Amino acid sequence: MTAARVGIGGPVGCGKTALIEQLLPELARLGIETAVITNDLVTDEDAERLRKGGQLPANRILAVQAGACPHTVIREDPTLNMAAADRLEAEFPELDLILIESGGDNLASTFSLDLVDWWMFVIDVAGGGDIPRKNGPGVLQCDLLVINKSDIAPHVDVDLDQMIADAKQVRGPKPVLAVSCRERSRIADIVSQLRRDVIFA
Amino acid sequence: MTAASISTKVMKLTSIEGSFNADLHDIVHALEHKGQVEFVHVSQADAARKRLRAETDKGREVQIVLPRSASIKDGAVVHLSEDLAIVLRVDTGARMVLVPHDIQSAMRLGHWCGNLHWKVEFNAGSMSVQLDGPEGQYRARLQDLESLADFHIDESAS
Ligand SMILES: Nc1nc2c(ncn2[C@@H]2O[C@H](COP(=O)(O)OP(=O)(O)OP(=O)(O)O)[C@@H](O)[C@H]2O)c(=O)[nH]1
Ligand SMILES: [Mg+2]
Q1: Residue B40 has pLDDT above 80, yes or no
Q2: For the domain A4-199, what is the CATH superfamily, name and number?
């Protein structure tokens, strides 16, 4: 069986890499064999950070440089990322899951289903409580909307409950989860959702 | 006959055996008479996926995990045994048909929809847009174009 391919998109600095850093130990605890592909503009910054973190063997972390707008390599022409995922799968046949972090983008960024089987979009409270109401395609179309940095909501004048309610309103039945990577809260809920919807292991 | 592993509740379906609309029609049809066919309804948007959790019309939970090279088409048979076939039904999905009135407008329209990353199909003299969200959102985007291009929405087609 192939490894599940899961996309993680969202605006610059919302906490995509931080989320991966929190997901990895939880996935490892459950015996889910994981690899990561990071996308950055013109560097390997996020991949280097994850390699230094040591939660995965360094060769299970690949970097793709988008060169231009990050959404071009996850939607318009995802060949670079598909090739990286194929490479990981060939090299590590035991993989259950490949996480693909998009470069920080805007609210319109979405993943092609040619590249991923399922994807989440991460926003954070510091971007403003009104973000869900702006109906960005990323917020609307993702399989799971993650609202990160719940720990700092009071410091940025955001009513978190209202923000969650607004997000649920625009997304209908599709799930929304508020988490804090800093406080490691609700990370296990994301993993449960992943296992149920796409990992199947 | 199929590479499916059956646990107590959830069935994992890992290959497409053929099509109810073509090669496997007679076999599946025979099973249908005995009430041994289950259908999974897949939306147009979900049909692009290779992995999918779904439920058959008889309430059986299935995990579909297809090879990267496979693609979900209407009628795909994802399980076939002596006493059970599972068939995917892809809903045609909502569409909106746009008709440009001249070449200049056609180019504008195509460029515009491309910039919006809409999924389209080209037909003779018209362009059919796949609606992945509420129709109102698509109409709102077209309003800005009205002063730049001559076109209309074929209301009879959607
Ligand atoms: N308070 C708080 N800070 C967080 C949380 N998650 C991430 N951060 C901080 O937010 C900043 C950005 O985090 P990253 O993980 O680099 O964000 P990213 O989305 O990967 O960024 P790009 O890849 O550059 O788009 C860092 O300074 C993190 O420490 C959180 O839950 N709470
Ligand atoms: Mg990052």
Answers
A1: yes
A2: P-loop containing nucleotide triphosphate hydrolases (3.40.50.300)
